[in-house]
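Standup notes
- HV: blocked on the assembly model, inputs below
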Amino acid sequence: MRQGFFRRNATMLVVLGLIAVLGVIGWTTMGQQPFVRTTLSGLTIGALYFMVASGLTLIFGLMDVLNFAHGTMFMLGAYLGWQFYTNPTFLFGLFPLIFALLAGLVTSPILRSTFMSLKVSEKSQKSIQTVVALAGIALIVLAVRGLDILGLAKTAMVATMNMGNPLAEASAQEPLAIFWFRPVLMFIAGLLLATASARPGDRTQVVYASDKRQAWIISSSLLVLTVIATLLRESAPNAVLMWNGNLRFFAALAVGALCGAGLSAAVEVSLIRPLYVRPLYQVIVTLGLAYVLREIIQVLWDPLAYQMTRPPMFSQPGKAENILAWFSGQNLTVDVLGVTFPSYRLFIIVLGILMVIGLGVLMNYTRLGMIIRAGVQDRTMVEALGINVRKVFTIVFMLGAGLAALGGIGAAPFIPVQPNMGDAFQLQAFIVVVIGGMGSYSGAAIGALLLGLARAFGDYLALKFSLSPAIAEASTVIIMAIVLLVRPAGLFGKKE
Amino acid sequence: MAEAKLDLKTAPGRFKSAAQSLRSEWLGLAFILLLVLFPFLFGWFTGTSVQDGPSKFWQGQLITFFIMAVYAMSYDLLIGYTGILSFGHAAFFGGGAYAMGLFLTHAGPKIIGSYKITIGSADITEVLVLIAAILLVVIVVSLLGLLFSVVSARIKGVYFAMISLAMADAIHILSKATDFGKWTGADEGLHGVPVPLWINPTQHRLLFYFVALAFCVIMYLIARRLVDSPTGRVFVALRENESRVRMIGYNPVTYRTLAFVIAAVIAGLAGALFSLWNMGATPTMTSAVTTINALIMTILGGIGTLIGPILGAGLMQIVGQFFYQWFGARWPLVFGLIFIALVLFLPYGVIGTYRLKRLEWKHGWQRLWGLVTSKP
């Protein structure tokens, strides 16, 4: 058993040992203060890397989809969280429409079973599908027409600029008497799109009773949400802004992650799923999606960089003597082993560690985690055992994007929120995934730790030799090259 | 083994006589002729001078189109023909641009200042400097291509896609690093590269137009020859089934390296010409956006064809110009949406779909024509 433990975790132990040895060398040569500071900033970056890389590695390991839009999810999460935190008018203004559309879309299994028995000749099936889908898209355009989305988007920008009173700028929205038709049209559009995806007349499909039941429940609850969101449209933003800043921040974390997850579920179903027959095009479509999402963000919020303010919990002036003192003082900085370190960054480290633990529990002790692990090992076998792998794919895609979006909001208070903020993280996450091995979340954790520390110490060394941090950034590629030369499948990857 | 090689060499479509190829390629020749005459026709129709005004503007658009067409074509040699999913193509393009720009900025003036090489009475120093720069570009870019292909020999598929992206990004970071700011201009990039006067794109736009056109045509012919050659057939075979290629007796690594170096050199030359045309090199040329543009052009026109990327580049450049007028600065959004729709519904691009459906459409037209004529 003891022998087995060492053999099984040999790589992990070797890597941790290597880090420890390097740490001791660093401690003795750099002195305590610089070493602690560099290590802590390395852990901060590593935590963010992990949030992006863990989703990426799971998605690739399970679905064989290389998601180039993952960094965009990080960026999107940052934007949505920033929106919610500074002025949620935009989000609340759009929620009714999105909920209505989704409520229509998820009825697909119900419609499938009803329209399956229609007598439609095989020739016209395809054209009916196209016509209905086009009608649905036209309805969406009609529903959104005239809605001042750009104006809604600008509200948060105004709020960031005059920090004193964000409520003053919460712009007026359309009255309910005019607005009501938009969610209704959206719902009908969703129904039409669901009809198109249900392929009326095609009797070769299978509809599970459980799917139908689920669709009923989800659709009706989404409809209720639509009604609530429509009614709360104007009052909710103000109410949220009246909340305590800390509560609003944690709500922003949740909202951003949920929005990211929801959006990526839509992406998986509409863009990735039809392309499983052409894997190359999956990669290409995610690239196109990243391109489009970035452009949309730039349309909404202009290609500028914004700074999200820190929640009050991490911004009281002064320095806490130790971490316990921070709990009462909620200061901007904390004294850690003689080093003054921003408390917010410590929070990011904690968030990262919580996520590693949470993901570990999910992967090792739940049924879903078991299915995911089995799917990474052998997808066909899992499918043969009667598990709906496609559904698991969607869940993993959501999970991954949700984690990335969460990382984005977490990063927003100390990294400028801008359209290309995800690119660097995505790239480093790729390197993390390659180092850690595809499909292994523990590999992603170790890889993120390695790369984060490497970045921080690289920056330190670059500064010492009066080079720019860019050199340190580029040198992470060298780490990747070394790991790949030793183990082409990554540290924890399955051997091919 | 020998038989298999013979098979590849006697592939159909080769050994055409001049008349035959003239007949089959008349559309392309007519298109080239149209492009040659374009500046004059445009000037004649609009009644403006060939040298300036709107004519000069559209010549500029077409120059960018020619260069981008070559760049997209080189990308398709990799992704479409050899089936290597590489996202580091901007490294070659930008590498070529930087090699050209750096040489002309830092070495060129010194050489011209201290040496004078003449043939008879003609001073050919500048020409020699330009040729030296082109040679340097070829060397630098082939080395880059070799670097990428060494990695691709060991790592396959999607892994390589990620690693190539990371490697290209390392080059992008270096290109905008402040450490080399003295030479490369860091974030700003190189500006005001001393391009030899006789080829200066602002003063001799028309000449530059013809140079770019000739470059595009020559590169197309080279690529065409390569693709039709036995080597090109091996490239396609590599895409379809690598283990079978190895069984037949070809070394996949050699051919992949060859494909990489050729694609890199073509892309690098395109980049070098682009840096002459812009009289500068900026970090954008090495960034991932440049790679994605190549991908979009290739997919738009049709992957696995040579005409496709050219057409895609044309659409992106010329249609993009109109999109810019209609939709403002955020026109790439429209382009991206079209791109996604294409990937979903027309995965073989414009040319690929045309080739797939050609016969179908032809029959359709014939039937329609038959209906029209048989019903007097």
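- HV (later): unblocked. Chain A touches chain B at residues 60, 64, 66, 271, 274-275, 278, 280-281, 283-285, 287-289, 291-292, 295-296, 298-299, 423, 427, 430-431, 433-434, 438, 467-468, 470-471, 473-474, 477, 480-481, 484-485, 488 (CB under 8 Å). The first strand of chain A starts at residue 316 and ends at 320.
- Next: hand off to the docking folks.
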